[in-house]
């Protein structure tokens, strides 16, 4: 989800990309003019990955463990096993558009059996709106729908601006995966339903209010989208029809553990009516959730409460049943002025979602001039569900599990207002690297050790590129955080160590976005071994490998023009999920942890990050003053 600064240029596409042998991962041919010219994801040199792997272990494992791992790596390199797997990967890279993307989609998402709510689906909080009633809610939702349909026009006409990074065009494929798609549970592995090539594209969205789902056609018979006024009228009809409260929250089933939901899903769709209703949700362009107001909290806690609402809906009593968590895009508009979205992660990373948000927010700020004559529109269709005793049992179980999940997730949003990107920039330091060092310092201050830290890096410079990991914890970051806790160190020395640590982070980030990081390469080698049906090399069975992949800090920068907050759950039971949006004058940071872990505390970590950022600016300024 690393959103590096990108420049956009409008390029209407008209040339079909040339076909390569092998499967096209989760996509279809489209006339995107630049797509065929994108380079293919490289397979990094084996020796380079092995050396870099050992370097990442230095600050996080003991000398003894490191010595043992060195021997295993040596054996892997010299015994021929590594070379054989490397050759297999290189063969795969020649035969496919992208040797990684299909494997990544399967292993990171579709094979994962944890619930998508909290565990993999990120939430986004938009700035608080000032409406406090249902008319305001409907008007806002109508404008939002119109904005997304305007964005969809860019996708349908292939006039979406191509993004650039360091003057290189980026892969735009993910933008074509986020609308009209939905995850489908399976008993052991999930799939993603997408609009079939050549089929008539869907013309409806789903709207859910008071746990009841409706099909809302958003296009007139002549193909023009409904106006904001028309959408408002249709939403009013939905609101009035869904007032009765005794409806079963069928949507809460989608929050379950994937195996449990897979079984419940098969049971649900045995009934023809249920199957048709589920299909209508899955095929819709996107979903809008009209939420009931949540319990009021202080202004200080407001963002944290809304971030939790975006991630899980607040529990069975509140809005958790007002969702279909498998749907790729769900926009959430609360009656109390809360708004944002939650997205299912399998088809896309954060940057396309953020680009869409920025586009829609800008669209919504325009004044409405068009007042269309009110053509009578048919009533939106209510989706019916026949609730058998078995389905009812599944829903009750899902409610219980959701409430456990809600109580377990600790969410704390830090709106850091002392400064933003401007301060590190003034001192010629990368803002991203600087903020990451604050996360390292905060963790070290709380636990007196460093931990494996993951930061998302985009691989969109390559065809169908997804992500790799920037390994944040380095020898250089360890020396810096140690110096900040050592009273014998002078500020000049601390600053020099901070500069070295941020420089190393910058190099690691550069290598990652250019396809030279270690994580996906190691994953590829491991999956190649499984595909070859050979015994698993010992390098992957080693304690150090487990430590290196136990990310106590899962982090991601999501740079948005909109003053929004993105959030996601931790990757491991004793870890933190940390997502940040650095603005020029302030930084929005969302921290999550699990209450069931006694060692972690989201509020405490957020406060320690706050203090680290304050201390690091003081370090920059004190040193600058001393040098004058």
Structure description:
- The chain is α+β, with helices and mostly antiparallel strands and 628 residues long.
- The chain folds into two domains: 39-99 and 417-627, Chloramphenicol acetyltransferase-like domain (Chloramphenicol Acetyltransferase, 2-Layer Sandwich); 119-160 and 172-402, Choline/Carnitine o-acyltransferase, domain 2 (Chloramphenicol Acetyltransferase, 2-Layer Sandwich), CATH 3.30.559.70.
- Helix content is 42%, strand content 14%.
- An eight-stranded mixed beta sheet has the order 12-8-7-9-10-11-2-17, sandwiched between helices. Strands 13-19-18-16-14-15 form a six-stranded mixed beta sheet. It has a three-stranded antiparallel beta sheet with strand order 1-3-4, with no helix packed on it.
- Helix 13 crosses helix 14.
- The two termini are 40 Å apart.
- 49% of the residues are buried.
């Amino acid at each position: 989800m690393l959103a590096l600064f990108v420049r956009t240029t409008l390029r209407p596409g008209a040339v079909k990309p040339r076909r390569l042998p092998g499967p096209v991962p989760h996509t279809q041919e489209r006339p995107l003019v630049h797509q065929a010219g994108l380079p293919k994801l490289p397979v990094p040199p084996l020796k380079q990955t092995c050396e870099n792997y050992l370097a990442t272990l230095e600050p996080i494992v003991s000398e003894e463990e490191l010595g043992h791992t060195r021997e295993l790596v040596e054996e892997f390199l010299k015994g021929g096993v590594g070379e054989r797997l490397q050759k297999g990967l290189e063969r795969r890279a020649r035969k496919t558009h992208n040797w990684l993307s299909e494997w990544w989609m399967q292993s990171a998402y579709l094979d994962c059996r944890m619930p998508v709510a909290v565990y993999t689906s990120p939430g986004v909080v938009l700035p608080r709106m000032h409406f406090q009633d249902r008319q305001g809610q409907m008007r806002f939702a109508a404008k939002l729908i119109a904005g997304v349909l305007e964005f969809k026009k860019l996708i349908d006409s292939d006039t979406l601006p191509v993004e650039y990074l360091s003057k290189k065009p980026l892969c735009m494929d993910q933008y074509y995966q986020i609308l009209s798609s939905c995850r489908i549970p399976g008993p052991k592995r999930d799939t993603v339903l997408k609009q079939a090539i050549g089929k008539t594209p869907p013309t409806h969205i789903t709207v859910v209010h008071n746990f009841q789902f409706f099909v809302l056609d958003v296009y007139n018979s002549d193909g023009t989208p409904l106006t904001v006024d028309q959408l408002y009228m249709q939403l009013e009809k939905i609101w009035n029809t869904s007032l009765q409260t005794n409806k079963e929250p069928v949507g809460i089933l989608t929050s379950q553990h994937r195996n449990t939901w897979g079984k419940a899903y098969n049971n649900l769709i045995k009934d023809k009516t249920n199957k048709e209703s589920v299909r209508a949700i899955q095929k819709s362009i996107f979903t809008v959730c009209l939420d009931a107001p949540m319990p009021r909290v202080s202004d200080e806690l407001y963002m944290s409460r809304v971030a939790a609402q975006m991630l899980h809906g607040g529990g069975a009593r509140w809005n958790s049943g007002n969702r279909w968590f498998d749907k790729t895009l769900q926009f959430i508009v609360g009656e109390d002025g809360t708004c944002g979205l939650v997205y299912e992660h399998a088809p896309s990373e954060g940057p396309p979602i953020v680009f869409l948000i920025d586009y829609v927010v800008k669209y919504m700020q325009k004044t409405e001039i068009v007042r269309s004559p009110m053509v009578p529109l048919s009533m939106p269709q209510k989706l019916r569900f026949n609730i058998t005793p078995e389905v009812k049992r599944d829903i009750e179980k899902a409610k219980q599990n959701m409430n456990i999940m809600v109580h377990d997730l600790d969410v704390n949003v830090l709106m850091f207002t002392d400064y933003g990107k401007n301060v590190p920039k003034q001192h010629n330091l990368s803002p991203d690297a600087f903020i990451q060092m604050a996360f390292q310092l905060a963790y070290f201050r709380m636990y007196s050790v460093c931990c494996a830290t993951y930061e998302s890096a985009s691989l969109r410079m390559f065809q169908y590129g997804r992500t790799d990991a920037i390994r944040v914890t380095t020898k250089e970051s360890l020396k810096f955080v140690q110096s900040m806790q050592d009273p014998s160190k002078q500020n000049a020395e601390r600053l020099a160590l901070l500069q070295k640590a941020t420089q190393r982070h910058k190099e690691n980030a550069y290598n990652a976005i250019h396809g030279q990081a270690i994580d996906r390469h190691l994953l590829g080698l491991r999956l190649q071994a499984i595909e070859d049906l050979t015994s698993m090399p010992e390098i992957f069975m080693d304690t150090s490998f487990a430590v290196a992949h136990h990310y106590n800090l899962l982090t991601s920068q999501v740079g948005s023009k909109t003053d929004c907050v993105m959030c996601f759950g931790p990757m491991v039971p004793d870890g933190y999920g940390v997502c940040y949006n650095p603005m020029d004058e302030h930084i929005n940071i969302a921290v999550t942890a699990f209450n069931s872990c006694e060692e972690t505390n989201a509020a405490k970590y957020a406060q320690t990050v706050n203090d680290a950022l304050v201390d690091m600016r003081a370090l920059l300024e004190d040193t600058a003053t001393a040098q004058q």
